[in-house]
Amino acid sequence: MRWTADLRRSAVPAWATLVAAALLAGCASDDVSSDTADTPATSGEGSPAPTGAVPLPDGPLDPGRYEFVVSVDCEGVEDDPIACPAGVPAPPPIALEVTVPEGWARMAGFPVITPTTTGTEDAALVLGWTSNTVGVQTDPCLSTSHQLPDVAVGPGVDDFVDAVTAQEWYRGPAPVDTEVGGARGRYFTVRAPADLGRCHEWRPWDPGFFAQGPSNTWEVWVLDVDGHRVVVVTEYFPDTSPGTVSQLTRMVESISFPGA
């Protein structure tokens, strides 16, 4: 896999906090369809398992419904003007559920789900981050990691989407309205340049991740969940199989926010 995420120290726990759950369940399907959450599964011993979402573990995932908490943890952070600027309150934890098909795994320690296959199946679902602060780069081709963004962005969905799509480097279509799991927002796409040779990393905004290689495509859903901005991203390459791209989209379509 190309995934070499180099996230900010403070952003890792912000994405990786899992919600506790008492239900033990899975869903026996390799298809992320609307009825998979109601499909009975079997345990590793072959006995029936109850249905319901379970905490998202690291490593290979059984097909089924998983829960995850999107949150920001800035407690004790004193010098991080990008992820935890002074005086900016953190949003509350936001519960998220997603249905995962067969053949996917969670990257250890990150809210990133990738295919278990190798070769051309370079792709990922980034299960989102929430923050009352983000900055956009007028030139994403950075000479060092995590340069302080030069375009300040407000806390809303439109603040972020309008700032990104106003940049000269943005070559995607106009953003469109969208809805995921009852949360309304806006959707747009980003493609990294075909030549990243002069870039230490190509990172269009921060907090966030960087392009995983030349021509890396990001599909970005920016959602308003109870007044807080949540960003969900799928990323892939021109040689990623259509089936994998379709599964990424269907995983996003399966997302819900049970506490909203």
Automatic annotation (TrEMBL):
Compositional bias ranges of the Low complexity kind: 30-43
Region (Disordered) residue spans: 30-60
Signal peptide (from-to): 1-25
Record key words, sorted: Signal
Name of the protein: DUF3558 domain-containing protein
Source organism: Nocardioides eburneiflavus
